[in-house]
């Protein structure tokens, strides 16, 4: 369906703010999200799954908590969302593998106590491809990780919706 992505992401983050209040008091979410509408054609159930996995990973792999910064912007007919944590990071050689099925970074000090199947990010990758978008990750290997989603952004959809707003006047 075609939705206002800004409302969608704020709604998801409101839900995580409540989860943080209850269970993860050493975290906070910082929003860098524009006020204006960004209309995108997405499967909201599937995309919620993507964002849920990335934010749950941020919780899982940040033993000291920290700030999870969510930034949304548009550029060159793409809409971007980055989710940055201050956790243990991902070593350079593992960066290209985290989207592989069942892959988990092998480090006894991290995954032994932290449960997971290694499927979350491969599913996220599949879902982004289904949207003709992409998911990428950067990390210096110790001071946090940043996951960036991109979607095709159509001037036409956004134009049309601006027109509907004019009709409402
Ligand atoms: P699940 O299937 O329950 O999501 P998982 O979290 O282990 O299991 P993925 O979400 O696919 O699997 O992540 C793959 C691996 O990438 C993780 O096991 C972890 O080693 C690494 N990883 C993912 N996100 C982060 C992060 N934010 N910080 C550090 N490492 C991460
Ligand atoms: Mg996961």
UniProtKB/TrEMBL annotation:
Organism, as annotated: Lactococcus ileimucosae
Highest taxon above the source species: Bacteria
Localization of this protein: Membrane
Histidine kinase domain residues: 1-155
Protein's name according to its UniProt entry: histidine kinase
